[in-house]
Amino acid sequence: TYLYSSLQVTYLGKVSTTGMQFLSGCTEKPVIELWKKHTLAREDVYPANALLEIRPFQVWLHHLDLKGEATVHMDTFQVARIAYCTADHNISPNIFAWVYREINDDLSYQMDCHAVECESKLEAKKLAHAMMEAFKKTFHSMKSDGRIHRNSSSEEVSHEFESDDG
Which branch of life, at top level (predicted)? Predict the structure, then answer.
């Protein structure tokens, strides 16, 4: 059985990003923008405002109320539409970010960079590893269901995962 990852985080928000090549460093600029907005907005350090749950096929971001309890508001991300993710940011090692292909009502799409702040660098890395596992499971399942026909499909999507834990 797959053990999914679930961590309390501070959701920093999302910002649209351009480009189709998602390579190392591509989340730096959006993360800096989100971090600056976030640090300007807060008077003091406030507790986690979300619960990030990574599973095969779907990532859930449950928004928490001021008491730290889950609200009805939840964002769902399809793992297959995540183009890139990393826990390696210069501005803070505690940030985990992912680029998501959001499909609009008119079937056009945009790439949004989402970021969360974790309690530690280790937690951010844990999320990156969990995302990698969810990705492997999702694509393995899609291949065996015949939804992916060419072997190159999974390689077209770039991900960066740091394997060191220090």
Answer: Eukaryota
